[in-house]
Amino acid sequence: MRDCHLRFRRTASLSGLSLAWILGLGVVVAGCGGGKAHGKGGGAPKVLVHPVPSDRIRALDSGSGKVVRVDARLKFVVLDFSLTAVPQPGLRLDVVRDGTVVGELRVTGPASGTATVADLVSGEAAGGDLARPKAP
Q1: Which one, 8, 23, 31, 84, has the greatest CB density within 10 A?
Q2: Which CATH class is domain 61-133?
Q3: Are 103 and 123 within 8 A, CB to CB?
């Protein structure tokens, strides 16, 4: 009886090992066909490119920042200039939302890292608005 039990354990472990080898070999074989194109004609798979409307393409404005905080009661905003230099105090900026000027700011400082503070001179500002130097 003991001999039968040992023989069963040996067979079970061998069949488990065989199953592991078969599965491993299947993964390797399936992975080797990855470089071949499927379908007729061969070549690289086609990539669909959707045209982007021209009104969504915008150049990066030099000197532009982003409104990150607004205090409407005290009429000041915190601006982030991560992509450009922080403007000097006294510079006037337009607040732009969806391509329309909605307000005017005057940089007052203080500046810390890429952030600075500006007074809301006129109009309005909201988080996410663009702040860019006034057009001459």
Answers
A1: 84
A2: mainly beta
A3: yes
Neighbours of 131 (CB within 10 A): 27
Work out the number of other CB atoms within 10 angstroms of the CB of residue 56: 6
Sign of torsion, CA 115 117 121 123? Answer: positive
32-41 average pLDDT score: 53
pLDDT of residue 41: 55
Dump the DSSP string for 42-84: -SSPP---PPPPGGG-----TT-EEEEEEETTTTEEEEE-SSS
The helix or strand, by DSSP H or E, that contains position 37, with its residue range, turns out to be: none
Strand partners, 95: 103, 131
121, 76 in Cβ contact below 8 A?
A: no
CB-CB contact of 93 with 78 (8 Å): no
Number of neighbouring beta carbons within 10 Å of residue 61? 14
Output the pLDDT for position 57: 47
Closest CA to 80 of 44, 115, 111, 109: 115
Structure tokens given for 9: 């354990």
